[in-house]
Structures are given as structure tokens and as C-alpha cells.
Design brief:
- The chain is an alpha+beta fold and 107 residues long.
- The protein has a single domain, classed as Rossmann fold (3-Layer(aba) Sandwich).
- Helix content is 37%, strand content 11%.
- It has three helices and four strands.
- A hairpin with a 5-residue loop joins β1 and β2.
- It is elongated, with a radius of gyration of 16 Å.
- This is Tubulin/FtsZ GTPase domain-containing protein.
Length: 107
């Protein structure tokens, strides 16, 4: 899930001319002045475009790939939430034990 999400945000950035650090070149005209990218991105006061998403996974290594990847500056650290261990493909473990610990961070 996280890997698909990361690939999707990379594609959205390419489609809308947003650089990996969230900046949009001022000389770039996107779709003739179309602001459709605001559906996917929030613009900060500094002009940085931040994805409207929260990435959550109990397995920390997958989220760490996003934290250290090419688009690491695109996401705010609060948007990348990871647990300490995987649920080992066990729904009950993920829902009632490991996942229960991380719910408050997500909400």
C-alpha cells in the first residue's frame, strides 16, 4: 500500500510539475492556469506543495523507504506514521494488539 501510494505521489508531482521538494517552478504554467492539483496538494505559506495524505504502516521499513527516498522532502514528518513491528499477516494481531497501539497517532 505505501509503495503504491509513494509511486502515485511521484506521478502526481510529474503530472503537475511539482518538484520532489514540493516547490513548483514559477515559470511553469500548469495546464493553462488550471488549479486542479490543489485537489491533491495543500500549499503552505512558503509556497511548498504538500500531499493531502497520511501514510500508515505497522512495518517501519516500508515507511522508512519513503522517509529516505527521492520525494522525502515532499511529505511532512507527521504524515508518515509507522509502527515498531509487523503484524505478520495476522489480522487479529494487527487489529487488536499492534494496530491498537498506533490508532491514536493516526487520528
Amino acid at each position: 500500500g505505501i509503495q503504491v501510494g509513494n509511486a502515485s505521489w511521484e506521478l502526481f508531482c510529474l503530472e503537475h510539475g511539482i518538484q520532489p521538494d514540493g516547490q513548483m517552478p514559477s515559470d511553469k504554467t500548469i495546464g493553462g492556469g488550471d488549479d486542479a492539483f490543489n485537489t491533491f496538494f495543500s500549499e503552505t505559506g512558503a509556497g511548498k506543495h504538500v500531499p493531502r495524505c497520511v501514510m500508515v504502516d505497522l512495518e517501519p521499513t516500508v515507511v522508512d523507504e519513503v522517509r529516505t527516498g527521492t520525494y522525502r522532502q515532499l511529505f511532512h514528518p507527521e504524515q508518515l506514521i509507522s509502527g515498531k513491528e509487523d503484524a505478520a499477516n495476522n489480522f487479529a494481531r494487527g487489529h487488536y494488539t499492534i494496530g491498537k497501539e498506533i490508532v491514536d497517532l493516526v487520528l
